[in-house]
Design a protein that fits this description.
With 176 residues, the protein is of the alpha+beta class. The protein has three helices and eight strands, in the order H-E-E-E-E-E-E-E-H-E-H. Helix content is 22%, strand content 28%. It has a five-stranded antiparallel β-sheet, with helices on both faces. A three-stranded antiparallel β-sheet has the order 4-5-8. The protein binds zinc ion. One of its GO terms (molecular function) is metal ion binding.
């Protein structure tokens, strides 16, 4: 049975260390970690989660967009694991949007991201893909990709005026 894992929060050095490539995707340890991340992101009402957020320094993240209590207007997709990902291209066209993070509880920040990205990655079966993603899902991927490079969304907020508590965000932005 999959387990809900403990989330490392901002201040924990694991969030600031670059993650390492996964050599063998098919091992039970990696497959169990993927199942546990899927369960953890669902429990936390997240849209994605990266292995460093559960203190595993591995190049692996889950993208799992769907509407939930923390993100009312998120598009629905089948949750997917991206392993050893590499963003190959970023569009010059960027858009600012509000982000939150399970590792930065209670905060939201306005972050500029490319509207379109091209990424190569392995899926959990070890199959290699190269795909283009746009808008909201491209934003989630860029956020998670930052995690495996030791970055968090706060690093990309241009001004402290672009930060809000989760409560104020829900009162002012999400319901506006
Ligand atoms: Zn995050």
């Amino acid at each position: 049975m999959a387990k809900v894992l403990k989330i490392a929060e901002i201040g924990n050095p694991v969030l600031r260390s670059p993650a390492l490539p996964i050599q063998n995707i098919q091992t039970p340890a990696v497959q169990t970690l993927i199942d546990n991340l899927l369960k953890t992101v669902k429990k936390g009402n997240g849209l994605g989660i990266a292995a460093p957020q559960v203190s595993e320094r591995l190049q692996l993240f889950i993208v799992a967009s769907r509407p939930n209590l923390r993100y009312l207007n998120a598009p629905t997709m089948e949750p997917m694991a991206m392993i050893n990902p590499q963003i190959l291209a970023y569009s010059d066209d960027t858009e600012k949007g509000w982000e939150g993070c399970l590792s930065v509880p209670g905060m939201r920040g306005l972050v500029a991201r490319s509207r379109e990205i091209k990424i190569s990655y392995s899926d959990r079966y070890g199959e290699q893909h190269t795909q283009v993603f746009t808008d909201f899902v491209a934003r989630i991927i860029q956020h998670e990709y930052d995690h495996i490079n030791g970055k968090v969304f706060l690093d990309r907020v241009e001004s402290t005026l672009d930060m809000m508590s989760e409560t104020e965000y829900h009162a002012r932005i999400a319901c506006a």
